[in-house]
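Lab meeting, action items carried over

1. Structure of the two-component assembly. Owner: GW. Status: complete.
Input record:
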Amino acid sequence: METPLTSTINKIETLRKCAFLDGLKETILNDLAARAETLRVASGEAIITRGEAGSTMYFIISGSARVHDGEVTWANIEKGEVFGEMAVLDSEVRSATVTTQSDCLLLSIERDVFYDALASDSGAFKAVLHAVLQREREIVQEIKTRSTKLLSYQKEMEIGRRIQADFLPASVPEIDNWEVAAWFEAAREVAGDFYDIFKLKTSSHIAIVIGDVCDKGVGAALFMTLFRSLIRASALYGYTDSAMADTVPDDTSGGAASVLLNSIMTTNRYIATTHAGSSMFASVFFGLLNPETGKLTYVNAGHEAPIIFRSGGEAEILEITGGVIGLFPAARYTVETVTLNEGDLIFTYTDGVNEAKNLAGEQFSDARILETAAPEAIGTESFLKIMLDGVRKFRGEAEQSDDITMLALKYLPSDPSI
Amino acid sequence: MATLNIMVGQEQGNVPVTVLRVEGDIDAASHKTLQDKASELIDEGASNILLDLGGVNYMGSAGFRALHAISNKLGADDDSGLSKSSHLKLLNPTDAVSRVIKTLGFDVYLDIYQDRDEAINAF
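Predicted assembly:
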Protein backbone atom coordinates (compact mmCIF):
# COMPACT_ATOMS: atom_id res chain seq x y z
CA MET A 1 0.00 0.00 0.00
CA GLU A 2 1.22 3.47 -0.83
CA THR A 3 1.93 5.85 2.00
CA PRO A 4 1.20 9.56 1.46
CA LEU A 5 4.93 10.12 0.91
CA THR A 6 5.14 7.70 -1.92
CA SER A 7 1.91 8.51 -3.71
CA THR A 8 2.23 9.21 -7.42
CA ILE A 9 1.21 12.82 -6.78
CA ASN A 10 4.02 13.12 -4.31
CA LYS A 11 6.47 11.62 -6.78
CA ILE A 12 5.37 14.05 -9.48
CA GLU A 13 5.71 16.89 -7.03
CA THR A 14 9.28 15.83 -6.21
CA LEU A 15 10.27 15.58 -9.86
CA ARG A 16 8.61 18.86 -10.76
CA LYS A 17 10.55 20.73 -8.08
CA CYS A 18 13.87 19.35 -9.26
CA ALA A 19 15.80 21.91 -11.32
CA PHE A 20 17.37 19.10 -13.31
CA LEU A 21 13.98 18.23 -14.85
CA ASP A 22 12.92 21.84 -15.37
CA GLY A 23 11.28 22.31 -18.73
CA LEU A 24 9.99 18.74 -19.09
CA LYS A 25 6.34 18.43 -20.06
CA GLU A 26 3.82 17.32 -17.45
CA THR A 27 3.10 14.13 -19.41
CA ILE A 28 6.76 13.10 -19.21
CA LEU A 29 6.94 13.88 -15.48
CA ASN A 30 3.80 11.77 -14.98
CA ASP A 31 5.33 8.93 -16.95
CA LEU A 32 8.62 9.11 -14.97
CA ALA A 33 6.76 9.30 -11.66
CA ALA A 34 4.69 6.27 -12.50
CA ARG A 35 7.78 4.21 -13.31
CA ALA A 36 10.04 5.52 -10.52
CA GLU A 37 10.80 3.30 -7.53
CA THR A 38 10.69 4.56 -3.98
CA LEU A 39 13.28 3.47 -1.46
CA ARG A 40 14.13 4.19 2.13
CA VAL A 41 17.79 4.39 3.10
CA ALA A 42 19.04 4.54 6.67
CA SER A 43 21.46 7.26 7.74
CA GLY A 44 25.17 6.62 7.02
CA GLU A 45 24.75 4.33 4.00
CA ALA A 46 26.64 4.86 0.74
CA ILE A 47 24.03 4.82 -2.04
CA ILE A 48 26.49 5.18 -4.89
CA THR A 49 30.26 4.74 -4.74
CA ARG A 50 32.90 6.60 -6.71
CA GLY A 51 34.44 4.50 -9.49
CA GLU A 52 31.63 1.96 -9.64
CA ALA A 53 29.32 1.48 -12.62
CA GLY A 54 25.70 2.54 -12.18
CA SER A 55 22.58 3.14 -14.24
CA THR A 56 20.29 4.72 -11.66
CA MET A 57 19.65 8.36 -10.76
CA TYR A 58 18.11 9.38 -7.47
CA PHE A 59 15.88 12.24 -6.31
CA ILE A 60 15.69 13.11 -2.63
CA ILE A 61 12.10 13.22 -1.34
CA SER A 62 13.21 13.73 2.25
CA GLY A 63 16.46 13.65 4.25
CA SER A 64 19.95 14.79 3.34
CA ALA A 65 23.15 13.30 1.91
CA ARG A 66 26.80 14.10 1.42
CA VAL A 67 28.55 14.04 -1.97
CA HIS A 68 32.17 13.18 -1.26
CA ASP A 69 35.41 11.44 -2.13
CA GLY A 70 36.65 9.80 1.05
CA GLU A 71 37.03 12.49 3.70
CA VAL A 72 36.63 15.39 1.26
CA THR A 73 33.08 16.68 1.01
CA TRP A 74 32.11 18.23 -2.31
CA ALA A 75 28.52 19.12 -1.52
CA ASN A 76 25.67 18.53 0.89
CA ILE A 77 22.38 17.83 -0.84
CA GLU A 78 18.83 17.60 0.42
CA LYS A 79 15.15 17.41 -0.46
CA GLY A 80 14.43 18.20 -4.10
CA GLU A 81 17.96 17.54 -5.36
CA VAL A 82 19.19 14.87 -7.76
CA PHE A 83 22.31 12.73 -7.74
CA GLY A 84 23.69 9.92 -9.87
CA GLU A 85 22.40 11.59 -13.04
CA MET A 86 25.85 12.00 -14.62
CA ALA A 87 26.52 8.26 -14.88
CA VAL A 88 23.01 7.80 -16.24
CA LEU A 89 23.61 10.36 -19.00
CA ASP A 90 27.17 9.43 -20.05
CA SER A 91 27.34 5.76 -18.96
CA GLU A 92 30.70 6.40 -17.24
CA VAL A 93 31.46 5.24 -13.69
CA ARG A 94 30.24 7.21 -10.68
CA SER A 95 32.28 10.38 -10.19
CA ALA A 96 31.60 10.68 -6.46
CA THR A 97 30.29 8.75 -3.48
CA VAL A 98 26.97 9.79 -1.98
CA THR A 99 26.31 8.85 1.63
CA THR A 100 23.10 9.57 3.52
CA GLN A 101 23.41 11.90 6.50
CA SER A 102 19.95 11.15 7.83
CA ASP A 103 17.27 8.58 7.06
CA CYS A 104 16.31 9.31 3.47
CA LEU A 105 13.35 8.66 1.24
CA LEU A 106 14.45 8.54 -2.41
CA LEU A 107 13.01 8.15 -5.86
CA SER A 108 15.10 6.09 -8.22
CA ILE A 109 14.88 6.11 -12.00
CA GLU A 110 16.73 3.70 -14.28
CA ARG A 111 18.63 4.88 -17.39
CA ASP A 112 16.35 2.94 -19.80
CA VAL A 113 13.22 4.32 -18.18
CA PHE A 114 14.60 7.86 -18.34
CA TYR A 115 15.54 7.72 -22.03
CA ASP A 116 12.33 5.93 -22.87
CA ALA A 117 10.20 8.63 -21.25
CA LEU A 118 12.15 11.41 -22.93
CA ALA A 119 11.88 9.81 -26.36
CA SER A 120 8.20 10.81 -26.65
CA ASP A 121 9.12 14.50 -26.86
CA SER A 122 11.85 15.92 -29.06
CA GLY A 123 12.07 19.03 -26.88
CA ALA A 124 12.78 16.97 -23.75
CA PHE A 125 16.44 16.30 -24.53
CA LYS A 126 16.96 20.01 -25.13
CA ALA A 127 15.50 20.72 -21.70
CA VAL A 128 17.74 18.14 -20.01
CA LEU A 129 20.78 19.41 -21.92
CA HIS A 130 19.94 22.90 -20.74
CA ALA A 131 19.73 21.69 -17.14
CA VAL A 132 23.07 19.88 -17.44
CA LEU A 133 24.77 22.95 -18.90
CA GLN A 134 23.22 25.12 -16.22
CA ARG A 135 24.78 22.85 -13.62
CA GLU A 136 28.12 22.95 -15.43
CA ARG A 137 28.07 26.74 -15.32
CA GLU A 138 27.49 26.58 -11.59
CA ILE A 139 30.41 24.17 -11.20
CA VAL A 140 32.70 26.44 -13.27
CA GLN A 141 31.68 29.38 -11.07
CA GLU A 142 32.39 27.31 -7.93
CA ILE A 143 35.82 26.35 -9.27
CA LYS A 144 36.56 30.00 -10.02
CA THR A 145 35.59 31.02 -6.49
CA ARG A 146 37.69 28.23 -4.97
CA SER A 147 40.69 29.06 -7.20
CA THR A 148 40.53 32.70 -6.15
CA LYS A 149 40.42 31.64 -2.50
CA LEU A 150 43.28 29.20 -3.00
CA LEU A 151 45.35 31.91 -4.66
CA SER A 152 44.79 34.24 -1.74
CA TYR A 153 45.77 31.44 0.73
CA GLN A 154 48.91 30.84 -1.31
CA LYS A 155 49.74 34.55 -1.15
CA GLU A 156 49.22 34.51 2.62
CA MET A 157 51.50 31.47 2.94
CA GLU A 158 54.16 33.23 0.88
CA ILE A 159 53.94 36.25 3.19
CA GLY A 160 54.18 33.87 6.16
CA ARG A 161 57.22 32.20 4.65
CA ARG A 162 58.97 35.55 4.16
CA ILE A 163 58.14 36.75 7.67
CA GLN A 164 59.37 33.46 9.10
CA ALA A 165 62.63 33.72 7.18
CA ASP A 166 63.21 36.91 9.19
CA PHE A 167 63.34 34.76 12.32
CA LEU A 168 66.48 33.09 11.05
CA PRO A 169 69.78 34.98 11.08
CA ALA A 170 70.25 36.96 7.87
CA SER A 171 73.92 36.07 7.99
CA VAL A 172 76.25 34.27 10.37
CA PRO A 173 78.50 36.45 12.51
CA GLU A 174 82.20 36.82 11.86
CA ILE A 175 84.15 35.18 14.68
CA ASP A 176 87.94 35.40 14.85
CA ASN A 177 89.57 31.99 14.29
CA TRP A 178 86.20 30.32 13.68
CA GLU A 179 84.31 29.42 10.56
CA VAL A 180 80.54 29.08 10.59
CA ALA A 181 78.09 27.72 8.03
CA ALA A 182 74.36 27.10 8.17
CA TRP A 183 71.80 25.39 5.95
CA PHE A 184 68.03 25.61 6.21
CA GLU A 185 65.56 23.96 3.87
CA ALA A 186 61.86 23.82 4.69
CA ALA A 187 59.80 20.83 3.56
CA ARG A 188 56.74 23.04 3.17
CA GLU A 189 56.19 26.80 2.77
CA VAL A 190 56.63 27.33 6.49
CA ALA A 191 58.76 25.35 8.90
CA GLY A 192 59.08 24.19 12.49
CA ASP A 193 62.89 24.07 12.43
CA PHE A 194 65.05 26.98 13.44
CA TYR A 195 68.63 27.89 14.18
CA ASP A 196 70.22 30.97 15.62
CA ILE A 197 73.71 32.27 16.18
CA PHE A 198 74.50 35.56 17.89
CA LYS A 199 76.95 37.26 20.24
CA LEU A 200 75.96 37.71 23.89
CA LYS A 201 75.95 41.29 25.14
CA THR A 202 77.30 40.52 28.61
CA SER A 203 80.26 38.38 27.64
CA SER A 204 82.28 37.31 24.64
CA HIS A 205 80.25 34.10 24.26
CA ILE A 206 78.68 33.12 20.97
CA ALA A 207 75.21 31.61 21.29
CA ILE A 208 74.51 28.61 19.06
CA VAL A 209 70.92 27.40 18.92
CA ILE A 210 69.27 24.72 16.83
CA GLY A 211 65.71 23.56 17.39
CA ASP A 212 62.82 21.58 15.99
CA VAL A 213 59.23 22.29 16.92
CA CYS A 214 56.98 19.22 16.87
CA ASP A 215 54.41 18.85 14.12
CA LYS A 216 54.49 20.59 10.74
CA GLY A 217 52.93 23.47 8.85
CA VAL A 218 51.48 26.69 10.15
CA GLY A 219 51.05 25.56 13.78
CA ALA A 220 54.69 24.52 14.06
CA ALA A 221 55.77 27.74 12.31
CA LEU A 222 53.90 29.95 14.77
CA PHE A 223 55.48 28.14 17.72
CA MET A 224 58.89 28.24 16.05
CA THR A 225 58.81 32.05 16.15
CA LEU A 226 57.82 31.90 19.81
CA PHE A 227 60.49 29.38 20.93
CA ARG A 228 63.23 31.11 18.95
CA SER A 229 62.32 34.59 20.21
CA LEU A 230 61.97 33.60 23.86
CA ILE A 231 65.33 31.84 23.80
CA ARG A 232 67.07 34.76 22.11
CA ALA A 233 65.39 37.45 24.24
CA SER A 234 66.06 35.70 27.54
CA ALA A 235 69.68 34.98 26.58
CA LEU A 236 70.34 38.55 25.41
CA TYR A 237 68.29 40.56 27.84
CA GLY A 238 67.31 38.16 30.64
CA TYR A 239 68.64 38.41 34.13
CA THR A 240 69.99 35.64 36.27
CA ASP A 241 68.18 35.41 39.56
CA SER A 242 69.76 34.00 42.68
CA ALA A 243 67.64 30.84 42.57
CA MET A 244 69.03 30.10 39.16
CA ALA A 245 72.59 30.76 40.25
CA ASP A 246 72.12 28.18 43.02
CA THR A 247 71.55 25.52 40.42
CA VAL A 248 75.07 26.12 39.12
CA PRO A 249 77.17 26.12 42.29
CA ASP A 250 80.45 25.58 40.52
CA ASP A 251 79.95 27.82 37.57
CA THR A 252 83.36 28.04 36.01
CA SER A 253 81.90 28.97 32.67
CA GLY A 254 82.05 32.72 33.12
CA GLY A 255 78.30 32.95 33.66
CA ALA A 256 77.49 30.90 30.58
CA ALA A 257 75.76 28.14 32.55
CA SER A 258 73.47 30.61 34.27
CA VAL A 259 72.55 32.32 31.02
CA LEU A 260 71.78 28.94 29.45
CA LEU A 261 69.65 27.67 32.31
CA ASN A 262 67.82 30.95 32.65
CA SER A 263 67.03 31.01 28.96
CA ILE A 264 65.96 27.38 28.59
CA MET A 265 63.98 27.26 31.84
CA THR A 266 62.24 30.59 31.22
CA THR A 267 61.26 29.54 27.71
CA ASN A 268 60.11 26.14 28.93
CA ARG A 269 58.11 27.51 31.83
CA TYR A 270 56.50 30.25 29.73
CA ILE A 271 55.29 27.93 26.98
CA ALA A 272 54.36 25.06 29.31
CA THR A 273 52.14 27.33 31.39
CA THR A 274 50.87 29.90 28.87
CA HIS A 275 50.27 27.37 26.09
CA ALA A 276 49.66 24.23 28.15
CA GLY A 277 46.57 23.34 26.17
CA SER A 278 48.46 23.21 22.88
CA SER A 279 50.91 20.48 23.99
CA MET A 280 53.49 21.96 21.60
CA PHE A 281 57.11 21.19 22.29
CA ALA A 282 60.53 21.77 20.79
CA SER A 283 63.79 19.92 20.96
CA VAL A 284 66.57 22.45 21.38
CA PHE A 285 70.34 22.36 21.55
CA PHE A 286 71.65 25.60 23.04
CA GLY A 287 75.37 26.13 23.44
CA LEU A 288 77.48 29.10 24.49
CA LEU A 289 80.90 29.05 22.93
CA ASN A 290 83.89 30.92 24.28
CA PRO A 291 85.64 31.52 20.96
CA GLU A 292 88.97 32.26 22.64
CA THR A 293 89.23 29.00 24.55
CA GLY A 294 86.98 26.72 22.49
CA LYS A 295 85.01 25.88 25.62
CA LEU A 296 81.39 25.10 24.81
CA THR A 297 78.84 25.18 27.63
CA TYR A 298 75.54 23.65 26.56
CA VAL A 299 72.11 22.28 27.30
CA ASN A 300 70.71 19.61 25.02
CA ALA A 301 66.94 19.59 25.57
CA GLY A 302 65.81 16.43 23.81
CA HIS A 303 67.55 17.32 20.55
CA GLU A 304 69.45 15.16 18.05
CA ALA A 305 72.93 14.88 19.56
CA PRO A 306 75.40 17.28 17.92
CA ILE A 307 78.66 15.69 16.87
CA ILE A 308 82.16 17.01 17.44
CA PHE A 309 84.57 15.80 14.80
CA ARG A 310 88.01 15.98 16.38
CA SER A 311 90.92 16.91 14.16
CA GLY A 312 92.43 13.54 15.05
CA GLY A 313 89.51 11.71 13.46
CA GLU A 314 87.40 10.74 16.51
CA ALA A 315 83.75 11.72 16.75
CA GLU A 316 82.18 12.74 20.05
CA ILE A 317 78.44 13.13 20.52
CA LEU A 318 76.74 15.56 22.88
CA GLU A 319 73.91 13.53 24.42
CA ILE A 320 70.77 15.10 25.86
CA THR A 321 70.96 16.84 29.23
CA GLY A 322 67.20 17.18 29.64
CA GLY A 323 63.88 16.63 27.90
CA VAL A 324 62.17 18.65 25.17
CA ILE A 325 60.93 22.10 26.22
CA GLY A 326 57.44 23.56 26.32
CA LEU A 327 55.49 20.84 28.13
CA PHE A 328 56.35 20.44 31.81
CA PRO A 329 56.80 23.73 33.70
CA ALA A 330 59.00 22.28 36.45
CA ALA A 331 61.41 20.55 34.06
CA ARG A 332 65.08 20.71 35.04
CA TYR A 333 68.11 20.72 32.80
CA THR A 334 71.75 19.93 33.32
CA VAL A 335 74.53 22.02 31.86
CA GLU A 336 77.53 20.26 30.35
CA THR A 337 80.78 21.54 28.97
CA VAL A 338 83.10 20.31 26.27
CA THR A 339 86.18 21.92 24.77
CA LEU A 340 86.84 22.22 21.07
CA ASN A 341 90.44 22.38 20.03
CA GLU A 342 91.98 23.85 16.91
CA GLY A 343 90.89 21.86 13.87
CA ASP A 344 87.75 20.48 15.57
CA LEU A 345 84.34 20.87 13.95
CA ILE A 346 80.94 20.76 15.65
CA PHE A 347 77.98 19.68 13.56
CA THR A 348 74.44 20.33 14.78
CA TYR A 349 71.36 19.27 12.82
CA THR A 350 67.67 18.44 12.97
CA ASP A 351 65.95 15.11 12.32
CA GLY A 352 65.34 16.09 8.68
CA VAL A 353 68.93 14.85 8.22
CA ASN A 354 69.15 11.53 10.09
CA GLU A 355 65.49 10.63 9.50
CA ALA A 356 65.44 11.50 5.77
CA LYS A 357 63.79 8.53 4.07
CA ASN A 358 64.42 6.86 0.72
CA LEU A 359 61.69 5.21 -1.34
CA ALA A 360 62.25 1.92 0.53
CA GLY A 361 61.36 3.75 3.75
CA GLU A 362 64.86 3.42 5.21
CA GLN A 363 66.29 6.30 7.21
CA PHE A 364 69.54 8.11 6.48
CA SER A 365 70.42 7.36 10.15
CA ASP A 366 73.06 8.57 12.58
CA ALA A 367 75.45 5.95 11.24
CA ARG A 368 75.27 7.41 7.72
CA ILE A 369 75.93 10.90 9.10
CA LEU A 370 79.19 9.58 10.52
CA GLU A 371 80.03 7.75 7.28
CA THR A 372 79.24 10.78 5.12
CA ALA A 373 80.99 13.37 7.27
CA ALA A 374 84.21 14.75 5.88
CA PRO A 375 85.46 16.98 8.68
CA GLU A 376 88.77 17.38 6.95
CA ALA A 377 86.86 19.21 4.18
CA ILE A 378 88.27 22.65 3.51
CA GLY A 379 85.65 24.35 5.63
CA THR A 380 82.22 24.22 7.23
CA GLU A 381 80.43 25.22 4.05
CA SER A 382 81.86 22.31 2.09
CA PHE A 383 81.21 20.03 5.09
CA LEU A 384 77.50 20.91 4.99
CA LYS A 385 77.40 20.56 1.22
CA ILE A 386 78.86 17.06 1.39
CA MET A 387 76.29 16.13 4.07
CA LEU A 388 73.40 17.61 2.08
CA ASP A 389 74.52 15.85 -1.11
CA GLY A 390 74.71 12.61 0.89
CA VAL A 391 71.17 13.04 2.20
CA ARG A 392 69.77 13.94 -1.24
CA LYS A 393 71.52 11.08 -2.96
CA PHE A 394 70.23 8.66 -0.31
CA ARG A 395 66.69 10.05 -0.53
CA GLY A 396 66.65 9.61 -4.30
CA GLU A 397 63.18 10.13 -5.77
CA ALA A 398 61.54 10.18 -2.34
CA GLU A 399 59.94 13.45 -1.26
CA GLN A 400 61.57 15.62 1.40
CA SER A 401 59.21 14.99 4.30
CA ASP A 402 60.79 17.15 6.99
CA ASP A 403 62.70 20.42 7.32
CA ILE A 404 66.47 20.10 7.06
CA THR A 405 68.54 22.39 9.23
CA MET A 406 72.29 22.18 9.81
CA LEU A 407 74.73 24.44 11.59
CA ALA A 408 78.47 23.80 11.73
CA LEU A 409 81.35 25.62 13.41
CA LYS A 410 85.02 24.91 12.98
CA TYR A 411 87.89 26.09 15.16
CA LEU A 412 90.42 27.12 12.53
CA PRO A 413 93.90 25.82 13.18
CA SER A 414 96.48 28.55 13.62
CA ASP A 415 98.81 26.19 11.79
CA PRO A 416 96.83 25.28 8.63
CA SER A 417 98.68 21.97 8.31
CA ILE A 418 96.81 20.56 11.35
CA MET B 1 43.96 5.77 8.20
CA ALA B 2 45.86 4.10 10.99
CA THR B 3 43.72 2.28 13.47
CA LEU B 4 44.58 2.11 17.10
CA ASN B 5 43.22 -0.58 19.35
CA ILE B 6 42.90 0.27 23.00
CA MET B 7 41.98 -2.22 25.70
CA VAL B 8 41.07 -0.88 29.09
CA GLY B 9 41.66 -2.74 32.35
CA GLN B 10 41.23 -1.78 35.97
CA GLU B 11 43.83 -2.74 38.60
CA GLN B 12 44.12 -2.13 42.29
CA GLY B 13 47.57 -1.26 43.62
CA ASN B 14 48.12 1.24 46.40
CA VAL B 15 45.51 3.22 44.50
CA PRO B 16 43.17 2.28 41.63
CA VAL B 17 45.06 2.22 38.33
CA THR B 18 43.48 2.24 34.88
CA VAL B 19 45.62 0.28 32.42
CA LEU B 20 45.38 1.14 28.71
CA ARG B 21 46.91 -1.46 26.43
CA VAL B 22 47.56 0.30 23.13
CA GLU B 23 48.13 -1.52 19.83
CA GLY B 24 49.04 0.11 16.52
CA ASP B 25 51.01 3.18 15.44
CA ILE B 26 50.46 6.38 17.38
CA ASP B 27 50.80 9.00 14.67
CA ALA B 28 49.17 12.21 13.45
CA ALA B 29 46.11 10.25 12.26
CA SER B 30 45.60 8.03 15.31
CA HIS B 31 46.81 9.96 18.35
CA LYS B 32 43.40 11.49 18.90
CA THR B 33 41.87 8.05 19.44
CA LEU B 34 44.22 7.56 22.40
CA GLN B 35 43.76 11.08 23.71
CA ASP B 36 39.96 10.91 23.47
CA LYS B 37 39.80 7.49 25.13
CA ALA B 38 41.99 8.61 28.03
CA SER B 39 40.04 11.83 28.33
CA GLU B 40 36.77 9.90 28.51
CA LEU B 41 38.19 7.61 31.23
CA ILE B 42 39.46 10.59 33.24
CA ASP B 43 36.02 12.20 32.97
CA GLU B 44 34.56 8.96 34.31
CA GLY B 45 36.87 9.11 37.31
CA ALA B 46 40.20 7.52 36.36
CA SER B 47 42.96 9.39 38.20
CA ASN B 48 45.97 7.14 37.55
CA ILE B 49 46.76 5.80 34.11
CA LEU B 50 49.31 3.21 33.08
CA LEU B 51 49.88 3.14 29.31
CA ASP B 52 51.00 -0.27 28.09
CA LEU B 53 52.96 0.50 24.91
CA GLY B 54 54.01 -3.10 24.22
CA GLY B 55 51.95 -3.16 21.02
CA VAL B 56 53.12 0.18 19.64
CA ASN B 57 55.81 0.02 16.98
CA TYR B 58 55.82 3.69 16.07
CA MET B 59 55.13 6.85 18.02
CA GLY B 60 55.55 10.22 16.33
CA SER B 61 55.52 13.69 17.85
CA ALA B 62 51.71 13.66 17.78
CA GLY B 63 51.85 10.69 20.16
CA PHE B 64 54.09 12.58 22.56
CA ARG B 65 51.76 15.55 22.41
CA ALA B 66 48.93 13.17 23.33
CA LEU B 67 50.95 11.88 26.33
CA HIS B 68 51.38 15.46 27.52
CA ALA B 69 47.69 16.22 27.06
CA ILE B 70 46.74 13.12 29.08
CA SER B 71 49.27 13.94 31.79
CA ASN B 72 47.97 17.49 31.89
CA LYS B 73 44.38 16.38 32.22
CA LEU B 74 45.30 13.98 35.03
CA GLY B 75 46.62 16.95 36.95
CA ALA B 76 49.82 18.88 36.57
CA ASP B 77 52.50 19.02 39.19
CA ASP B 78 53.32 22.60 38.20
CA ASP B 79 54.22 24.10 41.50
CA SER B 80 55.21 20.99 43.40
CA GLY B 81 58.79 21.24 42.19
CA LEU B 82 58.45 17.79 40.62
CA SER B 83 59.12 17.51 36.94
CA LYS B 84 57.68 14.01 36.65
CA SER B 85 54.03 13.23 36.26
CA SER B 86 52.82 11.13 39.18
CA HIS B 87 49.56 10.08 37.55
CA LEU B 88 50.70 8.83 34.14
CA LYS B 89 53.31 6.10 33.69
CA LEU B 90 54.47 4.03 30.74
CA LEU B 91 54.85 0.28 30.51
CA ASN B 92 57.03 -1.83 28.28
CA PRO B 93 57.72 0.39 25.25
CA THR B 94 59.14 -1.40 22.20
CA ASP B 95 62.74 -0.73 21.16
CA ALA B 96 61.67 1.67 18.40
CA VAL B 97 59.49 3.72 20.75
CA SER B 98 62.13 3.59 23.52
CA ARG B 99 64.65 5.14 21.16
CA VAL B 100 62.38 8.13 20.44
CA ILE B 101 61.52 8.49 24.14
CA LYS B 102 65.26 8.63 24.88
CA THR B 103 66.03 11.09 22.05
CA LEU B 104 63.33 13.50 23.17
CA GLY B 105 64.18 13.00 26.82
CA PHE B 106 60.61 11.98 27.68
CA ASP B 107 61.97 9.59 30.28
CA VAL B 108 62.74 12.76 32.25
CA TYR B 109 59.01 13.48 32.40
CA LEU B 110 57.39 10.06 32.64
CA ASP B 111 58.37 6.94 34.59
CA ILE B 112 58.86 3.88 32.43
CA TYR B 113 58.51 0.30 33.67
CA GLN B 114 59.17 -3.11 32.17
CA ASP B 115 57.19 -5.00 34.82
CA ARG B 116 53.44 -4.60 35.03
CA ASP B 117 53.04 -5.27 38.77
CA GLU B 118 55.90 -3.00 39.64
CA ALA B 119 54.34 -0.26 37.51
CA ILE B 120 50.90 -0.63 39.13
CA ASN B 121 52.39 -0.51 42.62
CA ALA B 122 54.44 2.55 41.77
CA PHE B 123 51.36 4.81 41.77
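2. GW to write a short summary for the group page. Key points so far: The interface with chain B takes residues 214-215, 273, 276-277, 279-281, 283, 301-302, 304, 320, 322-324, 327-332 of chain A (CB under 8 Å). Residues 57 and 84 of chain A are 4 Å apart (CA to CA).
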